Amino acid sequence: MLGSTLLNCSLISVLLLGFAAQTSLAHIFSKKKVIIKYLRYGNCGGTFDPVRFTDVQVSTTGDGDLVVSGKLDAYAKIEPPIKAIVKMKRRILGIWTPVPFCYNDFGSCDFDDICSYGRDYTNCPALLDEHDVPCECPIEKGRYILPGAQFSTKGTRWAVQIEFPSPLLIEKVATELEGVAK
């Protein structure tokens, strides 16, 4: 069993697919399209990392859905807690401006344990279940492959950066939360 102090950087890989799954479960999205500005990920440790991601691809469809594929090798059981820092930006007059608030876990938030986030469902999303990709912690040792899973995500006005503290950067455009940004 590995604690969060040993996993810091390598859990980035595990949470990339998890982020896409959690996004598909959120009820805050409008009918606008998702646009991925850019995605950067990396296996930031050495050859003894407990987790390694390969062949990661994230794209959007013409309808604005998020398409995620990749391979994950977990060389050890991944245990919670997994800390995550989410930084959100909003595009105002063409300029990405930081959103300084956290409202109902939406916005620029710190999560002490991302494993407990979004646990308002009883079953994994079907597309993760079909490919035996875990959607909750702990993550058992093994190889997980997600070939071109499509998640329904709608939105265009927010950018999200997630850090686990590491060099991973996810920039994803999401949506405007009604009433909060006014």
UniProtKB/TrEMBL annotation:
GO terms for biological process: ganglioside catabolic process. One of its GO terms (molecular function) is enzyme activator activity. Keywords: Signal. SUPFAM superfamilies: Ganglioside M2 (gm2) activator. One of its GO terms (cellular component) is cytoplasmic side of plasma membrane. Coiled coil: none annotated. Gene3D superfamilies: Ganglioside GM2 activator. Residues 1-26 form the signal peptide. This is MD-2-related lipid-recognition domain-containing protein.
